[in-house]
Amino acid sequence: IGVALPVYVYQKGDDFNAEGVPTGTSLKGASVGDVRIEGKWQGPSFGANDMFTLALVPGITLPTGDEKKFTGDKSVTGRLRALLEMNLDRVRAAATVGALFREKSTNFAAEVGQQLLYGAATDVRLDKGFSVIGEIFGRSGLESFGKGYTDANPLEADAGLRIGLPKMLSL
């Protein structure tokens, strides 16, 4: 079981009404997002030396964020993702695909409802205790798939380094 609570330490910007017109009020200050609770079920492993593993990750979010600060949804959401992991000697990689089930909402011209979730990640160990990590993940609005709204179709890419520390810790 996993629990996550996003924390927004700082936020600053202008507020807009439903038509996209500035209201003259500013958005600022700290906030929290929606609590996310996920379970994980490890499925079968297969391939030479069981290098592939399947898993399912169901989850929900609870509307604990502030919708007016754009840090939360207006209702409970549900999600289900399938994962495939590959584990070789120095390389680990994973891919995921799933769906987010939510009540439809409108943000300016974009309608955001049910969404396709996807992602891929890799961890390449270069030396003992030192890895390079890359990840790409996003969502696509199932009802607005071809419309290109970034609100409904966000995509993020991350890269980083992992440095092993004593006592099974990493930086």
- What's the mean pLDDT score? 88
Derived structural class: mainly beta
Total beta-strand segments: 16
What is the count of helical runs? 0
Q: How many angstroms separate the termini? A: 23 Å
Radius of gyration: 19 Å
Largest beta sheet, briefly? 10 strands, antiparallel
- Using the alpha-carbon principal axes, give the shape: globular
Task: Please give the share of residues in helix.
Answer: under 10%
Element-level helix/strand string = EEEEEEEEEEEEEEEE
| Percent range for β-strand residues | over 45%
**Uncertain segments:** none
Short description:
The chain has 171 residues and is mainly β. Helices cover 0% and strands 62% of the residues.
Note down, in words, how this protein is organized:
With 171 residues, the chain is mainly beta. The chain has strands spanning 2-4, 7-8, 12-16, 22-28, 31-32, 35-38, 41-46, 52-62, 77-87, 91-101, 105-107, 110-112, 115-127, 130-141, 155-165, 169-170. The strands form four sheets. Strands 1, 6, 7, 8, 9, 10, 13, 14, 15 and 16 form a ten-stranded antiparallel beta sheet that branches. The chain has a two-stranded antiparallel ribbon with strand order 2-5. Strands 3-4 form a two-stranded antiparallel sheet. β13 and β14 form a beta hairpin. The chain starts with a strand and ends with a strand. The model has no long low-confidence stretch (mean pLDDT 88).
Summary keywords:
171 residues, mainly beta, 16 strands, globular
